[in-house]
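If you are new to this repository, start here. Below is one unmodified record pulled from the training split, so you can see the exact layout before writing a loader.
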Amino acid sequence: QVQLVESGGGLVQAGGSLRLSCAASGAISSINAMGWYRQAPGKQRELVATITNDGTTNYADSVKGRFTISRDNAKNTVYLQMNSLKPEDTAVYYCNQRKLGLIRGYNYWGQGTQVTVSS
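And here is the target side for that same chain:
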């Protein structure tokens, strides 16, 4: 089973940038779709972006034009480049297999990485 560890979060001013990394303990080449998710306190977890092995990407409307998801299967890592950050982007960010995030009631998420954007 592939274990995922998120990193790269921190405190940043509005308009700033951060690059999140999702490092896997094993190969992710066999995982077609990977995704980044986020959850703010008291709010439901939401899908931020997805990427498939053929390079197809999708983004939530709230982050289009600002965030870029990418993957490096050779390094077993998925990235999320976040630019023009806004206070509403503040949340804990998680990565996971997209197919697992689609399972109703799924709740086996890692620690995530905290992103805090100040105004």
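Two things worth knowing about this chain: Strands lie at 4-7, 10-13, 18-24, 34-39, 46-51, 57-59, 67-72, 77-82, 91-97, 113-118. The longest strand covers residues 18-24.
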